[in-house]
Amino acid sequence: MSVAPIVRFPNIMVVNPSIPSKTLPEFIAYAKTNPGKINMASPGSGSTPHVTGELFKAMTGTNLVHVPYRSVAAVMTDLLSGQVQLYFGTTASSLEYVRAGKLRALAVTIERRLDALPDIPAVAEFVPGYEASAWFGVGTPRNTPVEIIDKLNKEINAGVADPKMKARLTDLGGIALRGSPSDFGKLIVEETEKWGKVVKLSGAKLD
Fold first, then answer.
1. Does the pTM of the predicted model rise above 0.85?
2. In whole angstroms, what separates CA 33 from the centre of its chain?
C-alpha cells in the first residue's frame, strides 16, 4: 500500500553547443525549422530520459530523432562530441559539463525552477503543463495495518522536512515531497495514466 512520497528528481534539458539556440523558445523554433535533424539521445528505449523527451515532442510539436544507447556514459561521449545534440539528463550526469561550458542547459523538467539552479528556467514556463521527473516513495504490503501505515507516514514526512535532509536532496537536484498515503496513491494513479499515454503515443518499448 502507498505510505508516503519522498522525493522528485527532474532532468535537465541539455544541448551540444553546436545547436545555436540559447533559450528554450529558440530551440523549439529551431527544431520546427529543422524537423528530423536533431538527434535526441537516451540511455535506452523506455528509459526516463527517453519518455521525458517524447512528452516534450508531443507537447511542442517538434520532430526529434530518438537515438538509444546502452548507458549514460555512452550518451555523454557522443553528446559531448556532437554525434547527438540533445539529452534530458540527470543533474548528476549533466551539471558538471554545463558548468564547464561543454553543454548548454536550456531548462529543467519540473514545473518550477530548482533552488539549486535558479538561473535555469523550467520547461513549463514556455510549455504550460509540462512536467517530467523520476519520483521515489515508500510502500508496504497490501494488508499492512492502518496504524502502522499512519505511523510510517508521520515519521517519513518528519524526516523529509528535516533541514539537513532537504539540503542534501537539494544538492542532489531533488525536491522533497510530503503528503498522506492517499496523496501518494493519487500520485501513482495520475503518473501511471500520464506516462501510459506517452508510451502508447511514442511506441516506446524497453530494450
1. yes
2. 26
Condensed to tens digits (0 to 9), the pLDDT of residues 75-116 reads 999 999 999 999 999 888 898 899 899 999 999 998 888 887
How confident is the model at residue 206, as a pLDDT? 67
* Better pLDDT: 26 or 118: 26
In angstroms and rounded to an integer, the radius of gyration of the C-alpha atoms of the chain is: 18
Helix (H), strand (E), coil (C) string for the chain: CEEEEEEEEECEEEECCCCCCCCHHHHHHHHHHCCCCCEEEECCCCCHHHHHHHHHHHHHCCCCEEEECCCHHHHHHHHHHCCCCEEEECHHHHHHHHHCCCCEEEEECCCCCCCCCCCCCEHHHCCCCCCCEEEEEEECCCCCCHHHHHHHHHHHHHHHHCHHHHHHHHHCCCEECCCCHHHHHHHHHHHHHHHHHHHHHHCCCCC
